[in-house]
Amino acid sequence: MTGQLTQKKRLCLMLLMCSPAWGNTVFIGDSIAHGYRMASAGRGTTKIGASPGEVRQMVEQFKQGGDVVLSSGASNLCSDMGNISAAIDTAKSKFSNVLLLSAPHCSSGVNLRMARLCTGNCEFVIIKAGPDGVHPARYNSRKLIVNK
Description:
By secondary structure, the chain is of the alpha/beta class. The protein has a single domain (about 5-125), classed as 3-Layer(aba) Sandwich (Rossmann fold), CATH 3.40.50.1110. It contains 5 helices and 5 strands. The protein is globular, with a radius of gyration of 13 Å.
């Protein structure tokens, strides 16, 4: 299911302003994906505190689909690049488009590696974190605020 994101689709994923807001988007991952899933009354598999290994298993168990918002669990264990990489690769092969979210507190090296893995039908975004340095101050079902 891999392919290149069109500029329109990339913008839609980045702003998450499609109509309806999340459409058929699936949310998979840790607390970051969980917050967006709850804010949008979306569907998917999320778990607060999920490790990269748990997220990889979630991705592997999910059926193929359209778009996915993926939070890899890196915010809970930045050093587990093996499982992070496997989750990203599996998501890219199972879903038409992948929006990979990361927290700014992961080292720049980890975020750079995730950005490099996120090619083709994948868009990588470092979210703008709130006071805890990990989660958004407020989850918004209509848009995703990103670091510039």
